């Protein structure tokens, strides 16, 4: 069995940054990543970088196929750079495979041909989140239905894009594809558009989208999805919509099921998020969790701050905690980018970020 002082599961922002820091401090580190297409994490490969590259090119009215090619070039460059930033360090082993807990110190890494068993004095979980697939008949079997990762790899621009879900992912893709030239329809099950936002912000975003030609249908309770004459048929309670491609943008949930955290005594909540305290300890005393897998705000900079908390405990004074995060600004990237984080009309609280 290979033994390490630190085993990090997942190549995300917190995990890769912690790996380099601990290796420079003399620790022997293993970083396990289940997909070689995810070196660098969500932001590099299927999140911030590819989407913002396409948002920019869509605003410049770049040809869609050329924009996808440029996005791939950017992502491939950064993925390769992220891999070598770790793999070329003498104290770090990058291991491809799917990790599964045996106990709180041991992991089985499932690999083609031969599995590995790894022992870690300390273990850090940074497996991120995955798309939520709602239980709608036909959603997993109908051609032309994509999650956000699949939509980022289309070979041609859909004439009509349907988006199931009117949250931030849906809004960004709606604006982007409208700028590329697609007809776009958002199907939102709620009676309010962006219900978590202040009404003036949500209404302004809706106006911007409608000015781009985007249709927004509220109270859209989809009952089933089918395929007919090369189109995706979306059947709702009162209407039917035919689109060339359908994006499932129903949110993201922590990616923990394949880890079998229960084998290590790690508690998870009802959504599969790993339960942590203010310093990101799990219920196993030698295991921490960082980033989206803890079920909090899913932003790269939150994952980076999680790294700072863990680093301070391991190599610093141990004073940092999640209590230090008071205000977290965020933005929605569309034709007119929106930023929120210092005032909330619903609570009447004004706080500077």
UniProtKB/TrEMBL annotation:
Gene Ontology MF annotations: flavin adenine dinucleotide binding; mercury (II) reductase (NADP+) activity; NAD(P)H dehydrogenase (quinone) activity; oxidoreductase activity, acting on a sulfur group of donors, NAD(P) as acceptor
Pfam families found in the cross-reference section: Pyr_redox_2
Domain spans labelled FAD/NAD(P)-binding: 4-301
Presence of keyword Transit peptide: no
EC number from the UniProt entry: 1.16.1.1
Names of required cofactors: FAD
Name of the featured protein: Putative pyridine nucleotide-disulfide oxidoreductase
Gene responsible for this protein: merA
